[in-house]
Specification:
The complex is a heterodimer of chains A (257) and B (313). With 257 residues, chain A is of the alpha/beta class. In chain A, 36% of the residues lie in helices and 25% in strands. Chain A has eleven helices and ten strands. By secondary structure, chain B is mainly alpha-helical. Classes of the chains: A alpha/beta (257), B mainly alpha (313). The interface between A and B is medium-sized, with 29 and 21 residues. The structure holds adenosine-5'-triphosphate and magnesium ion (MG).
């Protein structure tokens, strides 16, 4: 019953028969996945199955890679983001992204966080915005006395939370995360996971992960991809307890991948 | 064919074994490398020593104060005057003017090449720039004399045939490829992950290029600017041809001037006998140039360190 209700709810974003090509190579094949508001959607699957390619196509970051071609649609608030009317710059201000490797700007911590608001014209009460974003990213206490220090002087885990703060300072609606914890130690990973629970109260999150436990712990829905195909999409609980496809079961139970 | 192949294979194997077996070869490589490093150090020391040795007698006849503060320079005619300021002023005019041409155009070219140009455009522009920087400076000098100066004269009324402006412009043009190429390298060394971070926050191409990539490459860009200025200070042929040989204490770029290096060439080409004070001036000027460039290097290293701290950690 509950599942039915979820499915009835309108998706905030939805990929429809989305295919992504690198030249001739089809890295994502007709993926159709709904992304619901204020939930965490996990994308799992073995290395090279197209997870990164898929999430990058949700905010048109793929376009920055030469030779990429996208077919199909990604609906966001009902409109196709690949429509020629859509400006990818504005789109990315609504759909933020956190990368696998922390990539703070070689600027001060506060400049890192205020970059998004600044270019977006949200220049009022900038210091408050910086503080709020750092607090939301659970980094404030560690950096409040050294906001002028270079972002690169932080540890890897802190840098990643800085990148998360930088993304949420723009107040996006959706945050895409591509293996945000893969370069982090278990303690930092734990903190980022805790953070995700907080963040999903306000934001819609899509997260790529290789870590089954992580996907099971933090996500509401899970998409399992294999060789470019979305094999199965469902509530996380269902994917991990009674998946409907044999391949999914094999993967989540660790039989391959 | 196969015989030939196995013959070479045998030689290669023998060389490899020889390399591996003998400590001697490893040591000789180190010695060779050490000697190579020594050559440049010893050359520098030798030059400095000669400069000092030949300059000292000069200062027994002309006081340091007179040299540094004098406003007239005429060692080759009587009455002889040994004030270096006109030459420094001329050099400064050329260097400053050249920097004003080379830095904006060079850096602009670099930003265009590394951030905006397609690979095909780059593949055309890069070799053209290399050719430009390979043209002998004499040719640039004649270009200034026969093209830039007439052009200037048609726009501005009182431009002399030999003038600092024309020399500065042509030296600036000569150094654009160097600034562009080094700054382009510095900007391309900025990892793409930074560009992606900027784009993912909804930055435009302009914001990404000018406010993220450019500052991240700043230390390299500044290094290219410093090199451009050094090159402009050292440039001789083109400046002599375009700006003449009139040591004059003026900041008016429309007049003829003389730079320090141009003076050295002028004396060297004449038949000044060794041991005379005229002859010694060559070395005094050389020493002055050396001190100026040394100071510039020290200052620029300080500046670079500061920017490194700020941007690269
Ligand atoms: N820039 C590119 N050019 C060409 N092919 C690419 C490019 N990026 C990815 N691919 C190919 O597309 C496929 C999917 O890559 P993608 O990076 O999306 O996989 P992934 O699921 O994120 O893998 P991983 O878990 O290792 O990060 C791979 O086969 C990869 O080789
Ligand atoms: Mg990936």
């Amino acid at each position: 019953m509950k599942v039915e209700q979820k499915k009835m709810q309108n998706a905030l974003m939805e990929s429809k028969d989305l295919s992504v090509f690198y030249g001739e190579y089809e890295a994502v094949k007709k993926a159709s996945i709904p992304i619901y508001e204020k939930t965490v959607t996990a994308v799992i699957g073995p290395s090279g199955c197209g997870k990164s390619t898929f999430v990058r196509s949700l905010n048109r970051m793929n376009e920055l890679i030469p030779g990429v071609e996208v077919k199909g649609e990604v609906l966001y608030h009902g409109d196709n983001i690949y429509d020629s009317k859509v400006d990818p710059v504005n789109l990315r201000r609504r759909i933020g992204m956190v990368f696998q490797k922390p990539n703070p700007f070689p600027k001060s911590i506060s400049q890192n966080v205020s970059w998004g608001p600044k270019i977006n014209g949200m220049t009022d009460a900038l210091d408050d915005r910086v503080e709020e974003a750092l607090k939301k990213a659970a980094l404030w206490d560690e950096v409040k006395d050294k906001l002028d220090q270079n972002g690169l002087s932080l540890s890897g885990g802190q840098q990643q939370r800085l990148c998360i703060a930088r993304a949420i300072a723009m107040e996006p609606e959706v945050i895409l995360m591509d293996e945000p914890c893969s370069a982090l130690d278990p303690i930092s990973t734990g903190r980022v996971e805790d953070l995700l629970f907080e963040l999903k109260k306000k934001y819609t999150i899509v997260i790529v992960t290789h870590n089954m436990q992580q996907a099971a712990r933090i996500s509401d829905h899970t998409a399992f991809m294999y060789q470019g195909d979305v094999i199965e999409f469902d509530e996380t609980k269902k994917i991990f307890t009674r998946p409907s496809k044999k391949q999914t079961e094999d993967y989540v139970t660790g039989k391959f991948g | 064919m196969t015989d030939n192949h196995s013959y070479w294979a045998a030689i290669v194997r023998r060389c490899r074994n020889w390399n591996r077996n003998s400590r001697f070869s490893e040591k000789s490589v180190v010695i060779f490398l050490w000697l190579s490093a020594m050559v440049s150090i010893l050359t520098t020391l030798g030059i400095v020593w000669v400069l000092f040795k030949e300059s000292l007698p000069f200062f027994s006849e002309v006081s340091l104060f007179e040299y540094l503060m004098g406003t007239q320079w005429s060692p080759l005619f009587s009455p002889q005057k040994f004030g270096v300021l006109p030459l420094i002023c001329g050099t400064f005019l050329i260097a400053a003017g050249a920097a004003m041409v080379a830095i904006p155009f060079g850096v602009g070219t670099a930003i265009f090449l590394s951030e905006y140009a397609s690979n095909r455009t780059r593949d055309v522009i890069k070799p053209v720039m290399e050719v430009l920087s390979g043209i002998p400076t004499v040719v640039y000098g004649y270009f200034a004399l026969t093209f830039i100066t007439p052009l200037l004269q048609s726009v501005i009324a009182d431009v002399e045939v030999f003038n600092a402006l024309s020399g500065a412009i042509v030296v600036g043009i000569m150094t654009i490829p160097m600034v562009a190429s080094l700054s382009d390298d510095a900007m391309r060394a900025v990892p793409d992950s930074l560009r992606y971070a900027a784009y993912a926050l909804g930055s435009t191409k302009f914001e990404t290029s000018f406010k993220i990539v450019f500052p991240a490459a700043l230390s390299g860009v500044i290094a290219s600017m410093v090199l451009a200025v050094s090159r402009a200070i050292g440039e001789t042929m083109a400046v002599t041809l375009a700006s003449g040989a009139t040591p004059k204490l003026t900041l008016n770029p429309l007049e003829s001037i003389q730079t320090m290096t141009a003076y050295i060439v002028q004396v060297s080409l004449g038949d000044t006998p060794q041991g005379t004070i005229e002859y010694q001036t060559i070395f005094v000027i050389g020493l002055t140039l050396f001190v100026i460039t040394l100071c510039m290097n020290i200052v620029s290293n300080k500046v670079l360190d500061r920017y490194k701290l700020k941007y690269e950690v």
